[in-house]
Amino acid sequence: MIRKLPPELIREIAAGEVISGPADVVRELLENALDAGATRLYIELWGGGLDKIVVRDNGLGIPREELGLALEHHTTSKLTDLQNIRTLGFRGEGLWAIRQAARVRLTSRPPQQLGGATLTAFQDKTELHEHPAPAGTQVEVTALFCHLPARRNALEAPAAEGRKVVHLVSRYLLHRPEIALRLVVDGEEKIAHAGGGFAEVIKLLWGSVVANRLLPLEAAEGPFTLRGLLSRPELSRPRRDRLLLALNRRPVEWPEPLLQAVLAAYKELLPAGQFPVGVLNLEIPTEHLLINTSPDKSRVRLIRPEAILGFVSQAVQGLLSAHPLARALPEPAPLTGPAPVQRVRFPRLRYLGSFRELYLLAEAGDELYVVDQHAAHERILYEELSRRYLEEPPLELPHPELLSLSLGEEMNLAERLEALEQAGLQIEPFGPGKYRVRTIPAFLAGYPSLVGEVVKGSLGASSFAVAWRTVLARLACLPAIKAGHPLSSASAQALLDALAGCELPWVCPHGRPTVLVLGEGELARRFGRRGVRAVVDPSPHRSE
Ligand SMILES: Nc1ncnc2c1ncn2[C@@H]1O[C@H](COP(=O)(O)OP(=O)(O)OP(=O)(O)O)[C@@H](O)[C@H]1O
Ligand SMILES: [Mg+2]
């Protein structure tokens, strides 16, 4: 039998969607404070937030006569147009939902109002007291879920709930480093930030080893701006948990195409399956953004994303090409301010000698370079192949090669016909599950035994671009100079020159570094010299 649910149950379900634990309470209060323009925030947590949560801000405050309204359902001062959401809150149910789940004391005074007031509320009951109060708002939430034992039992231990809050507050602070914020958990100060830039917050929360390996990014084009920090290639993680995005100041989960645009900009600077580290604040016109009304509003969709993806991809590529990316021996270079975007060229290296027939030693300016001969050669061959397949007309095979494809490969083939043809591969059906290869890229001419591997490789992975890159990288490492094979000085110098001519000389096609660099200053420091030798006549091969 279908029955209408009693009102108190409807209310509990609706409120439960917004507030399922202490971190949700903190998120709602934190977002309200930020929307109120707060520049100083104090957050306190007791018993993992189950006993007490306090959030105090120096924002706009709530007029005395509106305190009651603030705690009602569907009451907001923010939303005027769903197509144009500029605030974190807009539904008018954050405080209402907290009030269904716990006792709330809301104290506030707008700066221009004489005297403040406190509204105490729990479910339907409210009480108002007027009294002097500092400008701003303080919300105190106690006895969370005390009347809802099932919800309370579903929570983790207080320490775990407390950790979620620290994580959440950190996330907001990373995107709003200008805010001064203190977080105290069970009397212990967890975060104390006086306000500053991205680098200061990251140093505070992720440590200086991470902060020193990040590059500052600032880009703008038309209505789009992108600010933040992104890691140098040597700092990556197998998970995306430290690559954070805020869209129009809202911390969100990555819209997949946007994440792919950032990853693609790194090209092979990141080994497959690795993610950079960083914090990015992207601002776009609101008509490009659909904010899902999921309880925490963290899932968003981009509308007509092409121009945004192009902008982000350019900005990240510009950042990476504006910095020398050779990995330092032994320490990372210190963090510098935003650099003017100009392409940093790989220096012309002068060959000095080799070590164990694996590494080439070379100099440029006042730096010593150690080059992995094998990795460097792979990079050169890889870029050569990447050029050749586009430039040279494909080769028709005198006897078409017959292949059996798996179901997955057949499906990818159907989707990638055009891209495959551009790569020089014409493949036709030839009976169930069977295909014949009519043409191959010219660079495969001398290697008929590799045709099957190349075709199957190009039908794997998540996209043709990724699959094709893997195929070329694999080919580049087949005939590469075997590690340990001695090189004449002339051919070693030729290898270094060819590397300098590469588009991405810093890494091999698999993302391993090709060069390590040691500055003369670092050598002097390590040998305990007081200063580097005065260089009277700088080498003609100074790095550019
Ligand atoms: N810290 C604060 N400072 C100033 N005003 C506040 C503060 N917290 C709440 N308010 C006022 O109370 C109103 C209701 O807050 P509530 O969080 O319930 O809804 P909202 O923020 O408008 O939307 P959402 O439900 O999406 O969070 C806000 O619109 C705002 O006017
Ligand atoms: Mg709110």
Automatic annotation (TrEMBL):
DNA damage among keywords: yes
Biological function: This protein is involved in the repair of mismatches in DNA. It is required for dam-dependent methyl-directed DNA mismatch repair. May act as a 'molecular matchmaker', a protein that promotes the formation of a stable complex between two or more DNA-binding proteins in an ATP-dependent manner without itself being part of a final effector complex.
Family, as annotated: Belongs to the DNA mismatch repair MutL/HexB family.
Keyword DNA damage assigned: yes
Protein name according to UniProt: DNA mismatch repair protein MutL
Pfam families given in the database record: DNA_mis_repair (PF01119), HATPase_c_3 (PF13589), MutL_C (PF08676)
Key words of the record: DNA damage, DNA repair
Cellular component terms (Gene Ontology): mismatch repair complex
UniProt-listed GO biological process terms: mismatch repair
Domain DNA mismatch repair protein S5 intervals: 202-321
The gene coding this protein: mutL
GO molecular function: ATP binding; ATP hydrolysis activity; ATP-dependent DNA damage sensor activity; mismatched DNA binding
Superkingdom of this protein's organism: Bacteria
SMART domains: DNA_mis_repair, MutL_C
All copies of domain MutL C-terminal dimerisation, residue ranges: 351-487
Source organism: Meiothermus ruber (strain ATCC 35948 / DSM 1279 / VKM B-1258 / 21) (Thermus ruber)
Segments forming a coiled coil: none
Matching Gene3D superfamilies: 3.30.230.10, Histidine kinase-like ATPase, C-terminal domain, MutL, C-terminal domain, dimerisation subdomain, MutL, C-terminal domain, regulatory subdomain
